Structure prediction request, 355 residues.
Amino acid sequence: MSKGSDRDNHKPSFSAMDRRSAIKTSLAGAAAAGAAFQPKVLGFVQPRKNLSGDGTGIFAVTPSSGTLCSGVQIRGRGFGLDPANIHCTSYPGDLHFQTATCDDQRILTQIRFGHTQTNNALNVSLGQGAYATPSEFPTNLTPYGRFWAWRSNNSARYLAAAPFVFQPSNTLEPGELRVHGADFTNGALSLYLTLPFNDDCCRHCPAGTFIGWSFYVSDTDRTNQLAAQGQFFVEVEVNGTELLNALGAVVVSTVRSMTGVALTRSVTETSETTARLTLSRPGFNYSLGSLGVRINHFGRTMDCGPIDSQSFDTQSIASLGAAPPSSSINACDSASIAPCDSQSIDMDFPDFLFQ
Prediction:
C-alpha cells in the first residue's frame, strides 16, 4: 500500500475529535503505559460580586465609612492608570472625591465635599479627564493649585456591592461657610447662597476670600456625566451675587477648557442676602449631582492632608507607576503626593466678570 494510502487510513487526529474524547484517549494511553498521576491544586478562583462580564469591577472598599478628608481605598480591576480619568462619587452624586492615585487594580481617593449623612454604594466611572493650572485668570481672581475636569465617554462604570457611610463634619473653621446645591429644574443645577457667614461677620465677602468648589452632574442613567474641581481667591470685596458670578464663570471655563463641553450660567438675586447660581448644558437634561462650595473669608485654604498609603497596605503610592496629582487640590507649596507640574491652560472669562 502506498504511503499516501497509509495516511488516508490513519486514525482521526485529536483535532478531528471532540475535546472530551481527546482527553479520554490521552489519559487512557498514558495510564496503559504506566504513568502515575499526582494532581495538584495550583490556585483557586474566588467569586466576586458586582463584576462585569470581563471580570472588571469593584472588589472591596476600605474603610466602609468616612468623613471630610478621609482617605478611601477601592480595590478591583479595570481602573486604568490615569487618575485624571477616574471619577468617584456615591448615588445620587452628593459625595465628592478627589482621586490621588491609581493603578489598574487600586484607587486611592479622598472625600472633599459632602453635605448630609449618606449610606449609598460608591460609584467609579471611567472617562476622559485632565489636570491643569489656568494660565490666565481675571485680575480680581487668583487660582490656587491645579484644576481638574472630567467627562464620561460611554466608558465603564462600576458600583460597589456594599454601601459606604458618609458622616459630615459639623465643625466649621472660623470664617467658614459651606454651601451645597442639588436643586434640579428642567435639567439645570442650581445653588443658593445666603450671606452672612456662620459667624455673622459679613454680608459681603472681603478681599482675600478663599473659594473651593466641586461640581458634578449626570443624567438618570449616567451615560452623560461631567465633573470638575478647583480653588481660587477673590482679591476684591464682593457680595453674594458677584461671588456666584465669579464661581459660575470659573466652573464654566474649567469645564470648557479641559473637556470641550460648553455650559451656560445665570445668576439671580432673590433677596438682599440671597442669590442663585444656575448651571445648564443646552440640549441635555441633568437630574443627578451637586455643586459643593467651601468659602472662607479669612482666606484659609482646605486642610486635607495627603493620603497615607501605608494606612491601607504596604504598597507605596510612588511604586504604582502612575504620575499622581497632589492629593490636596489646593497645595502646590505644601506637602503633597506630587509636585504641581501640570500643563497650563487658557481659560476664557468675560472682560467684566462681576457686572
